[in-house]
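Format notes (please read before filing issues)

Several people have asked whether sequences and structure tokens are stored in separate files. They are not. Every record keeps both together, in the order shown below: the sequence lines, then the token lines. Line labels are part of the format and must not be stripped during preprocessing.
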Amino acid sequence: MPARDRLLAVLVAVLWGLNFLAIHATLGQFPPMFAGALRFAVLAVPTILFVPWPKVKVRHLLGYGLGFGTGQFAFLFIAMDTGMPTGLASLVLQASAPFTVLLGAVFLRERVTPHQLAGIALAVAGMATIAWQRAGHAALLPMVLTLLAALSWAFGNLSTRKAEPDNPLHFTLWMSVVPPLPMFALSLVMEGPAAQWRSLTTLGTPTGLTALGGLAYVVLIGTVVGSGLWTTLMRRNPAGVVSPFSLLVPVVGLTASFVLLGERPTGLEIGAALVVIAGVLLGSLRRTARKPEPELVTV
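Then the structure lines:
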């Protein structure tokens, strides 16, 4: 992998790690379900108008949109809105990798190697430690919601593997057409039109302007720029060489949250985070080389 591509991979990890701070800013103004609907609606309109259809079966696109888009961000946004620390959310969401391995074995008959099982066990041990720590601070529910977000992402991964899109970026952008309607409907039921309207009519406040900046970052930098660079790297290099760079995302997320938001993870959580990252890395390795698979866009 050329040095230039390594630097680009690190840049993408930084962009995606900072994405969690942008989500934090967005949730300071918008209710979580409404924020998720807006996040995808902003992408859906230009996608329908200007991006070619990715030439996949509709059911696979719907599966990806409902898993990766609707489920993941519904659970993640609610988790962060109800107290999940921003940096910790960037870490726990990496549980999507071992979840994908397990779901692939169950639904796609993919073989799970011993070192993948060992990695999954490490990641689960780390997650369980963090959950135990969170429960001690009466914050277990946000942790569980974040794990459900990771599980939803894993189900989206299965749809992507079945779809085998010829252009992963187009597939990712067209996925954004699926979540707006169900998330708007959930927002109406769970949050109510009054909360939606209030968040729109107060956009001129400092909090509102910060939220707009966060939303712009999530859509333009986190999704369009980040996924565009990542897709390019995946095309130029083996997937097994590029994928481990995604483990830098929680490192950036935890560090940025510590510096900019004043979040202070405990020593036990830091140790468990290292265990989770090691487990995800080990569980993501394959014994033999495989055809590069389309990488999914993170938050």
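For reference, the curators noted about this record: DSSP finds 14 helices and no strands in the chain. Residues 288-297 have pLDDT under 50 and may be disordered.
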